[in-house]
Structure formats: C-alpha cells, structure tokens
Specification:
heterodimer, A: mainly alpha, 9 helices, 66% helix, B: alpha+beta, two-stranded antiparallel sheet, 15 helices, 46% helix
Chain lengths: 179, 404
C-alpha cells in the first residue's frame, strides 16, 4: 500500500522528536517556545522530504537545521525562542515528593540558570545545549560545521562566561564582572 | 590535572566516570584555577537543569504545523518577494565607509585565447564510462533520434559560486581614487583559484586587494571529456569604484543586487554565504552528495538560498555530474530565472549548460530556444565558442532560428 508524504514524514521524524525537543528546550528555556522551534524545524525539513528519506543520519540533519535556525535567528515564525519567564517554567522533572520549599528553591535555581543562559551569545548557548545533551565532539562538529579545535575553544569560553553569570546572579548585583 | 584536562573531561562526558584519584586531582585543580572552577560550576548547573518530557501529542502538532504551512514535500519554498542577491554586479564594501561604499567589477571575463589544457588523465582512476560516452557525444549526435536515451554530457563550463568582494584599500579611499586591476589565474581541478598574477592595473594601490579577493573565489571547475580539469590563464578585471555621495538629506541609493544591510537579513545572508563555502568545500573534496545535502540544508534554513541563482547553478552542476539530467535542467532553469531578474543578466554559462542538457536529451528546439533567449554579451567571449559549436551542431540536425 502506498503511503502519503505525511505518513512517510511522521515515520521518519517521530523517532527524533524527543532529541529535537530536548535540545530545543535548552535553547528556548520554556516548553512552548521549544515546541515552536521544533515545529519550525519540521516544516523546513518537510520541504526536503526527498533528502530526509535518503539521508544516513536524519537526527543529526534535523539537529543541524535546528541549530542554524536558532543561531542565525532566521525563523519562519514571529515568536522569539529567547523568552524566559517564571510562568513558563516546567518543573515536571522535579518529582521526588518535594515539599513546597524545595519546589520553590529548585524553581528559583532553575530560573537563575535560564536567566543566565539568556545573556550568552546564541551560538554559545546552542553549543552548550548540544554538549550537555550528550553529543560527542564529532557529532557536534557535523551539526555545527565547526572544527574540533574551534568547538573546544568556544565551549570552554561559553562555560566560563556562564559560570561568571551564575556567580554574578548569586551574588547580585552586577553582570558587569562577566567581561 | 591542568585546564586542558578539565575541559576534556567535560567535552568527553567523563565527569561521572572519574576514578577517585582523578577526582582528587580535579578538585585540587578547581581549587586553584578560577576559570576552570567557573566552567565546572556552569557545567554542573546545566546538567542539573531539568528538561520536561516531550508531550505525546507533539508529533500531531508538528504534522498540523506542516499542513498549515502549506509546504509541499520535495518542492522548494518559493519566496514571496523577488529580491535577488548575487555576488556579482555590485557589492557593498564595509558599511562603516559611509558614502564611499561601492565596489564594482566586471563580469568575469575568461580569456579563451589560452585554451584549456585537459589535465593528465589519472591512470589510477580511469572513468571509462564517461570517456566512452564522450566519444559517443562527439560522433553520435548527427544520427541521434528523439527516442534514444540521452547522450551523457562530457563538457561543462566552469561556474563561479562564491565571489567575496575585495576590500577597498584605505589609501585609495582617502584619495577617493577609483581604479581597476586585471588579474590572471588558474582555476584548479577542485575549483580553487591559484597562481594569481596581476596583468595590469591602474594603480599599484589596488593590486594586493584584488589578488587577495580573487584567491577567495570559488569555482565549479570546467569538465572536459567527463573529467574536471584545471583552467590556466583565466583573466578577470576587478574594478574599484566609489559610489557618488548622496545629496544632503537623501538616503544613499541602493543597488537592487546588493546584499541586505539591515541586521537580521544581513546576518542570515552572511551565514548563507558561509554555508555555500561549506558546500563548495565538500564538492572540492569530491563529496558531491555531501555538497548536495549542504545545499538542501541551506534552502531549508535560509529563504535567501532558494532565491539565489548560484545555489541552483550548483545543483545543476552536481546533477549533471550524476547524470540526472531532468533535475539538472530544472535547476538551471531556476538559476536563469533568478539571474534574468538582475540588471544586465549575470548568468555565467548556465544557458550553455542548459542547452547542452536539452541537446543531450535530443530536445533540439529547446536547446536552440535556450541559446537564443539568453544571448551572450560581448564581454563573455569565453562562452561564445561553446555556443557557436552547439548552434552548428543544431544546424547540422536541421534546427535553426528559421525552423523554430
């Protein structure tokens, strides 16, 4: 029986949605923008279904589209993925019967990290997102087209900058020390 | 343990697999090295950041978004407006140079008086199929009929896919000096520019800027008898011209072929250009499929990519190499449709490539129509030999302007 392009697409993309969403969440900082980003990437990928069908590493290819869409800031939709608000925080992962104070404390530190992330360059944020999602340097090289040496250097700078931002957040005021 | 080791532990995801001794060494280093301590803290914070689970209905939402977008599978997204961007014609020098902002140069003029020398055939990797088919192309066209299979294309003209502009020398800017440099160079088998020489120039001040720019140009090389060959003695005029300063209160005039200068679009254009360079790198490393995938990705990511004739020329060249003439024809038609909208027409050889494809498929009338539609101007002499040859072949088959 012949399948429709939609069915083909669903079959090809479904196994990678989780990876796309996890990386997108780390880029966008909230569920709704992350899902927007994933949908945006999928609309782009659907236009190239022929390629998607023949490609050996569809996940890497989709992540590459997502990386570029985020880093280059060229999006087909209007919403910015860089929006971090308390209301959007999704604390579903914090589930070990925490008391109200624990929830508040965890949400606070989570918000602090997300807030610090918004002060990074988009590429720094994207590189950290991929790295912490467990991608190897070789995979990241394929996704970002950066050489290993450049990747290592940028990851290192991004982490130090984030560390400074987190320190500054903790000790408020002044994000000035980051430079 | 030193700073490099700490970064390697993180980069290679070895944080949780350290031995006790390694962990102690790490802690020692972090205690005395502030940058590493900051990096480590950042990494731990990121790792601890909870990521919610993916909603089960996300796939349905994705499919609805695809449906809503009206995107068609396989077909490229068409841009809503028709602004074309091409590295030829006119390009802006640094925006900071205010009123003196144009660098312009002629279309590449390849001097065919230095004939292409086919590179020595590589005995280690003979491509007999292409060689044989090239013989068929040479001898078999007169008896070919429309129903026979396509004759493989064995000759392809080179295309420029990237032509970053030269820097306007500051010494010349200060003097508001305009000028030109005629350079000669070799287009290597992989399409890179080599052995650049200055033939003549209006002023030495422009020479190094022109030579440096030309070295960064990227070609898809000429194909002769089915093999990529180097082309020596290619000559090009690089012109340096200043834009007339706009009258007071009047905004600077912009050429329709200029790259965008506003923030996001300009960034996207630069990123697209970098992607084009990556596609070319893959091509130069003989990875045609890799180059094609890179172009696919560029089109998926940047709307400007589908509007840029160079992308379609690149596809046309790759598909011709695959022997997939149907797609090659569609790609070159796309390229020409985009170039046609630019002032002066900036096609470099796509019309000949397209006509050759039609010819190979025995669609002779289409071959001739293509040549007539995209006529060659005086400054593109290098093409005229190929065009004349094809017109002669068509005439021998009884297809001429009169019979159309």
């Amino acid at each position: 029986m012949n399948t429709t392009p939609h069915e083909d697409f669903a079959q090809l993309v479904a196994p990678h949605l989780d990876a796309l969403f996890r990386a997108a969440y780390r880029l966008a900082g909230n569920r709704s923008d992350a899902e927007d980003l994933v949908q945006d990437v999928c609309v782009r990928a659907y236009a190239l279904l022929g390629t998607l069908k023949t490609i050996e590493q569809p996940k890497r290819w989709l992540l590459k589209i997502q990386y570029r869409a985020f880093v280059d800031g060229v999006r087909h939709r209007d919403r910015s993925p860089l929006r971090t608000t308390g209301e959007d925080l999704d604390a579903t992962a914090l589930s070990e019967e925490p008391g109200p104070d624990d929830v508040a404390e965890a949400a606070l530190s989570e918000r602090r990290i997300l807030e610090a992330l918004t002060h990074l360059e988009k590429q720094q944020r994207a590189l950290l997102a991929l790295q912490v999602e467990g991608y190897s340097l070789a995979e990241m090289q394929a996704i970002t087209d950066l050489s290993t040496d450049v990747l290592k250097a940028r990851l290192c700078r991004a982490r130090i900058r984030l560390g400074k931002l987190l320190g500054a957040e903790r000790g408020a005021p002044a994000l000035a020390m980051e430079n | 343990m030193n700073c490099t080791d700490v970064a390697a532990v993180i980069d290679e995801h070895r944080e949780v697999r350290l031995t006790t001794a390694e962990r102690c060494a790490l802690d020692d280093h972090l205690g005395g090295c502030e940058p590493c301590a900051l990096a480590w803290r950042a990494q731990m914070a990121l790792a601890a950041l909870p990521v919610p689970s993916t909603r089960a209905s996300l796939l349905d939402d994705v499919l609805r978004a695809v449906q809503r977008s009206g995107t068609t599978a396989h077909a490229p997204r068409r841009a809503a407006h028709a602004r074309i961007l091409f590295a030829g014609a006119l390009l802006a020098a640094g925006a900071a140079l205010a009123a003196v902002s144009y660098v312009a140069w002629d279309e590449a003029r390849e001097d065919n008086s230095v004939q292409t020398v086919p590179a020595a055939r590589d005995a280690a990797a003979p491509d007999t199929s292409l060689r044989e088919t090239s013989r068929a192309a040479e001898s078999g066209f007169a008896s070919a009929e429309a129903t026979t299979p396509a004759v493989p294309i064995a000759e392809v003209e080179p295309f420029l896919v990237a032509r970053p502009p030269p820097k306007y020398p500051s010494a010349a800017l200060e003097r508001r000096l305009e000028g030109f440099v005629q350079v000669e160079y070799t287009v290597a088998r992989n399409g890179a520019v080599e052995e650049v020489k200055v033939v003549t120039s209006s002023d030495a001040v422009f020479e190094s800027a022109a030579a440096e720019a030309v070295l960064r140009w990227r070609y898809l090389p000429r194909v002769v008898a089915g093999e990529r060959v180097a082309v020596q003695g290619v000559q090009t005029m690089v012109r340096f011209q200043l834009a007339p300063a706009p009258a007071e209160g009047e905004p600077a005039k912009r050429d329709p072929g200029l790259r965008p200068s506003d923030g996001e679009a300009a960034r996207a254009f630069l990123a697209f250009e970098r992607g084009l360079e990556v596609a070319w790198q893959r091509f130069a490393a003989d990875d045609l499929r890799g180059a094609e995938l890179e172009l696919d990705e560029l089109r998926a990511t940047y709307e400007v990519a589908s509007r840029d004739g160079r992308v379609w020329s690149f596809y046309g060249y790759i598909f011709t190499q695959y022997g997939d003439y149907g797609r090659a024809i569609a790609a070159y038609e796309n390229a020409l449709a985009r170039y046609e909208k630019l002032p002066g027409g900036v096609w470099q050889g796509e019309q000949l490539a397209l006509a050759n494809l039609y010819f190979a498929r025995h669609e002779y009338a289409m071959a001739l129509k293509t040549l007539l539609k995209y006529r060659v101007t005086e400054d593109r002499r290098s093409l005229s030999t190929g065009i004349e040859t094809l017109i002669e072949k068509l005439r021998a088959l009884g297809v001429s302007e009169e019979t159309l």
